[in-house]
# Entry
Amino acid sequence: MKITDLKIHVLKSPLAEPFAFSQGWVKQRSATLVEILTDGGITGWGEAFAQGLEPPEIAAAVIDKALKPLLIGADPLDMEVLWHRMYHMTRDYGRKGSVVSGISAVDIALWDIAGKFHELPVYRLLGGAFRTRVQPYATGFYRIKGQGEAKRLGEEAIRHFEAGFSLMKVKLGYGVDDDIACMQEIGRAVQGKPITLMVDTNHAYGRAEALKLGRALDEYDLRWYEEPVVPEDVQGYVEMRHKLSMPIAGGENEHTLYGFREFIGAGAVDVAQPDLGSCGGLSAGRHIIALAQSHGVQINPHVWGSAIAQAASLQFIAAVPVAHHSLFAQEPVLEYDRSSHPFRQHLITRPIQQVGGWVEIPSGPGLGVEVDRAVLEKFRV
Ligand code: CA
# Structure
């Protein structure tokens, strides 16, 4: 079997109501999808992580100009060989960011092809399923105005709970005082209910403010405190881990085994969060699992994107071992973005959904999903 072509699909849709995370206002949804065609008649799908503020055309150009010439004519089942070829040939201008996101999209599509070729779900090729379903956590609590929205956020917590979510992650990083006011309101709203909270500041603060916030949040028994400082400040992460009581999480802005070696090796996190669409895909995800296991660090992937990224993440989550085995070990959870997205769910014929507090991991061949071409065409730029 040989790769005959790569088609790149850039999708965009403006949001009726823009929302903010700590780094800026998200005004549109976008996605960079890649479709790899083969002479065997099998097609694979992949997606590059497009952070809310990132133009999706960057990863698209990487795939088109830098990666496609390395792939045409190659055997798509050589996933590991092709990963290294793509990484080596882009090293001098890549290693991080959108270049690795482009590699990630291609790699995911190659695993999709391999699964379809062997007629097995990707998790079987990764070594089998540790779990067939995963508990989702609601990512939400974005801001519509900016600050002073504590009351609305308390109500939002109840809405997630009533929709079946008992785990939820609160976006913070809008000023420490405003963050604390919001958490007090959310804490009151969820009191007495079986709800576990996490927080994520998207690296809004320097060490002093990040510590001040962390200390103020001690009472909420957080499952984790995500991206407390900028990803470059690895020692800042280490300091948070030493000085705060809750687990520290991060990694959505780190890339490949080499990036995670510094991050995990330094003792920066309790929970490492590679994003399949930017860490280097499933091949790199597999490398990072081995690294994390050797350091006793839990892997819990970051998930942001359309249904293709979600499907790849589900296959990966199925194959992630727990970091600390016991009868009642803590299992990985699925990041489930609850903010508005015009095409995320409808991009595949059978949308990924939370039912009764769980998300089933698709067991069909490859990523286990089928793209709805009508939806693809509708949002294609
Ligand atoms: Ca995050």
Observations:
- The radius of gyration is 20 Å.
- The chain has twelve helices and 13 strands.
